[in-house]
Amino acid sequence: MTYQIHIIGGGLAGSEAAWQLAEAGVRVRLSEMRGVEGTPAHHTDLLAELVCSNSFRSDDPEHNAVGLLHAEMRKLGSVILRCADAHRVPAGSALAVDREGFAVAVTQAIESHPNIELVRERIDALPEGHAIIATGPLTAAGLAEAIRSETGEEALAFFDAIAPIVHRELIDMDLAWFQSRWNKGDGHDYINCPMSKDEYLAFHAALLAGEKGEFREWERDTPYFEGCMPIEVMAERGVDTLRYGPMKPVGLDDPRTGRWPYAVVQLRQDNALGTLWNMVGFQTKLKHAEQVRVFRTIPGLQNAEFARLGGLHRNTFIQSPKLLDGTLRLRARPNIRFAGQITGCEGYVESAAIGLLAGRFAAAELAGTTLAPPPPETALGALLGHITGGATAETYQPMNVNFGLFPPLDVRSKKADRKGLMAARAREALATWAA
Q1: What is the pLDDT of residue 271?
Q2: DSSP-derived pairing of the beta strands 333-338 and 190-195
Q3: Percent residues over pLDDT 90 in the chain
Q4: Concatenated DSSP letters for 318-370?
Q5: Mean pLDDT, the chain, whole residue set
Q6: What local confidence, expressed as pLDDT, does residue 410 receive?
Q7: d(Cα 4, Cα 9) in Å, to the nearest integer?
Q8: Which residues of 305-332 are buried (b: 16+ CB within 10 A; e: fewer)?
Q9: Cα–Cα distance list, 12 to 17, 51, 223 (Å)
Q10: What is residue 152's predicted lDDT score, i.e. its pLDDT?
């Protein structure tokens, strides 16, 4: 097939960009390295494989910015949200998916589209024609060097950590129980493993003492991203840090005592069958043997078997506010757009959202028209604004979508009403822009 645009990278952003272009009648060549060469984090060659959590986070469009982003993407025909909805698993008010079913669905959608040619190949040079680079945080060395050579900028970097997954059948439900915090959801969305004060202190000490993976020379000065901090690094910040973070017991009543435990480890369903559950917030750089030893000290997980242990990999992103224009084009090479985590957005949904916008911007350009960026009052516009101009290159850091990126309201409102008013304003602004 003779293609009009070349997309490099078949993750969430690349798949979404390809879909948006193909639906607009543009012929796409989508190059994905996996299938020829693997990465330190992926386990399959499926498109849009989820390598960390299986959660797309909150699906509440009225009170949460990422839930609002979900809603906006659904209105714009997102293939990622369509497949996520089709493979949803219980997670309270969050959107979590059966990760294999989701990735298979995205792969099948892309492979079967008549306007998309999926090619398994590694690309090491910047394309000459219209292109979107969506290679994500694990961009191959050759292409990363080509980007650095073209821009004259060193890519920033941070570490991202992967949480373990355990087999449901070996969780001791005499100690653990089903409950969503504050009883949201259907009551069976999370498994909770309680800890007494003594158990928690012993666990905290074991995390600090556990043997960690060694860093390579070039990784040692790389900062962590706050939104995906390894559990043992959080533990180093203070003895109570975990109890006020991923091990927070608030809103969870232990049925054996009728009270909140001192601390709690939550597990969230990871596949449609309910046979695999991931440890929420337990991304880690502990060595594998240490993970098994330390995590089996958690009440309810003393006999746990792990379908996947945690891991750590280096993520890279470009200084987007300095390098990209308002429609994600590389200023030095306007034929090339960037999308996804390599732009410095953080999160599955955010990556796909920037892929959606890159695809739509490119489709309009190829049609000889101009698509204005979505209004900053929308979740899409707020996220795009942060990437392309909302921060200085010197202080730019990966960011999840949040209401702090939105313009302030023109009217005074109670704090409790603010998010609802911002969501209503966003819906109106998106409807006008989409029309």
Answers
A1: 81
A2: unpaired
A3: 70
A4: --HHHHB-TTSEETTEEEEEE-GGGGTB-SHHHHHHHHHHHHHHHHHHHTT--
A5: 91
A6: 82
A7: 16
A8: ebeebbbbbbbbbbbbbbbbeebbbbee
A9: 9, 11, 24
A10: 81
For residue 209, with 0-12 CB atoms within 10 Å meaning exposed, 13-18 middle and 19 or more buried, which class applies?
Answer: exposed
Topology alike, domains 5-155+318-434 and 161-314: no
The answer, yes or no, to whether residue 228 has pLDDT greater than 90, is no
pLDDT at residue 97 greater than cutoff 70: yes
238 backbone φψ class: left, alpha, beta (φ>0; ψ -120 to 50)? left
Cβ density class 42-67: b for 16+ within 10 Å, e for less: beebbbbbbbbbbbbbbbbbebbbbb
- The CATH code of the domain at 5-155+318-434 is 3.50.50.60
In angstroms, the CA 223 to CA 245 distance is 20
Number of residues assigned to the chain: 435
> Which residues, at least 6 apart from 352, have a Cβ–Cβ distance to it below 8 Å?
12, 13, 15, 16, 73, 78, 80, 81, 340
| Angle, in degrees to the nearest 10, between helices 99-112 and 12-23 | 30
In the 8-state DSSP scheme, what is residue 404? G
CA separation, residue 414 to residues 132, 417, 419 (Å):
42, 5, 10
Three-state SS at 244: helix
Structure tokens at 241: 């840090």
Top-confidence residue, 273 or 108: 108
Share of the chain above pLDDT 70, in %: 94
* β-pair partners for 403: none
From the list 66, 70, 52, 53, the residue with the least C-alpha distance to 315 is: 52
Query: Do the Cβ atoms of 261 and 198 come closer than 8 Å?
Result: no
- Residue 317, strand partner residues: 156
Neighbours of 195 (CB within 10 A): 24
Does the pLDDT at position 8 exceed 90? yes
Domain ranges, ordered by start, for the chain: 5-155+318-434, 161-314
On the question of pLDDT at 219 being above 70, the answer is: no
Q: Which listed CATH number (2.40.30.260, 3.50.50.60, 3.30.930.10, 2.40.50.140) goes with 161-314?
A: 2.40.30.260
Residues 6+ apart with CB under 8 A from 34: 10, 42, 44, 45, 49, 120
Q: What token pair was written down for 75?
A: 């209105």
